[in-house]
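Exercise 7. Given the components listed, write out the predicted structure of the assembled complex. Treat all entries as one system.
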Amino acid sequence: MRKFIILIFFSQCIYNTVIAQQNTVLKLVHKVGNQPLTLYTEVYKNQWNEPFTVNKFSYYMAHLQIVYDNGKKTYTYHKPYHLVVENDSTTKTLMLQKELKNITAIKFLIGVDSVQNTSGVQTDDLDPMKGMFWTWNTGYIYAKLEGQSDSSKAPAHYFSYHIGGYKYVENAARKIELAVSSNAQNAIEEIIIEADILKWFYGTNEIKIIQEPICHQPGKLALAIADNYKNMFQVTAIK
Amino acid sequence: MKIYKVIFSLLCIVFVGISFINIKKHKPTPLKFIVPKGWPKPLYNFKQNPLTIEGFELGKKLFYDERLSKDSTISCASCHQQFSAFANYDHNFSHGYNNSFTTRNSPALQNLAWQKEFMWDGGVNHLDVQPISPITAKNEMAETLENVIKKIKRDTAYQRMFKAAFGDETINTQRMGKALSQFMLMLVSSNSKYDKVMRGEDTFNLPEKLGYQIFQQKCVSCHTEPFFTDFSFRNIGMPLDATLNDIGRMRITNNNTDSLKFKVPSLRNVNITFPYGHDGRFFALSNLFEHYRKNMQPIATTDVLLKNKMPLSNFQIGQLTAFLYTLTDSSFITNKMFAAPAYTKPIILHQH
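Answer.
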């Protein structure tokens, strides 16, 4: 352990003094349709004309990989599990520790592998302290969307979607693969991925707040919503 | 600019030097987990959490620490009392934060290393994550993990004990869970009169012997030896309590066929773990026997073994009761190793 720390320390020294190169940055931008996401105050409308506000939006971006050099190489992000939280801007900028060129695809998982769901308490972004964890029915919440809507009949007109589930028939983890076409030959400074919250409500399944204001457990509804939001991501800029 | 680089490089060298000076290998003392003779292999993965005396002592301190609750009034041990085989003595429901009630009966904590799923509905899949549930439940300890870790981190005794148990000062949810598991895993009850008889160290008296024979005919298919449970989930014809609306296992599996199924509880230490049933509705063994022979209301999901209830004569009930009393393990409930740590004693009690 100590040797390892020393090694890291040294490599950091060398890194800081000698290399100091430009790395690619991946930015996540959250939107509702065409509008930028503003928590609490902004009222949006979904596909079914239901007005709603957003109070919470977060998800696990896992096993992030970027295929570059025209498909010849794959870069793997150093954190296997990265928790993205709307009101914590630091979680929405991922410093990739490499300069990437000719990116052809971005792959990740929205979810947590079953091993981490079944092998006790995890650390870092998977620490149950982060609030993305069911205590009564062990397992991670992969994605969370909460807000208020006049269409909701739940207390305080709240709607709350906590999506998770790792067991075979309830597995809500979704693999995302975004194809990228970029002609830029230069090293890429910035990749922007947009996530559109409206996609939670339609696509594969119709999700209406009036009918389903709450999803707090694994099962059919969670799977239906996961099948919708797996299409929410889009690469909008490569600079 | 150049001068900064020089200073920085020098600092690097100094730090590396310091890290070598500090080398003093720390090693916690291993604690042996003894599998009672004839028992199967434990299910808990000890490789991921090797038992040590330091880890066990830390787990014990956490288990008995009221600061794990929101207002520092409730510890794990408040509802898991040693004299009741770590169940909540004489309580159908336990008392949570701010005059609240739990909705289920606090189970005895014993032989947990052999248990695959926890809670009456089996919703918790690993012993290390189990404590998070009562710590954060609004009607139990009602605290956030963030606050618990914050409180623990401030305590210098904990700082020392986490370092002693895990090698460095890091205090996090994972280590807290592992330490609590180390304490709970050691709670093995295998020294009741029944066990002594099985080992040939003692003999049953006549009622106990007859009771054991009746037990073999009527009870053992679910309350299987040596744990006196087969860890399955079954509906024993307890009608739904409308104030609780507890559907049991179905809440976890979303499967209609699991409606009103609950985990078969172990009968070890049964005499001192009353009341009985997932909601503690049976205040005495006699209530349970009346349930089995008369009061139960079988429905579609009720266990096939109980479709015609369970005929029991008064005589059989008497003998069964005598046998069940032999499952009380007095050495377990008085073992000082599991008692609350005293403030005056050294932190590591058994260090050589």
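Discussion: Confidence is low (pLDDT under 50) at residues 344-352 of chain B. Residues 46-189+332-338 of chain B form a domain with the Cytochrome Bc1 Complex; Chain D, domain 2 fold (CATH 1.10.760.10).
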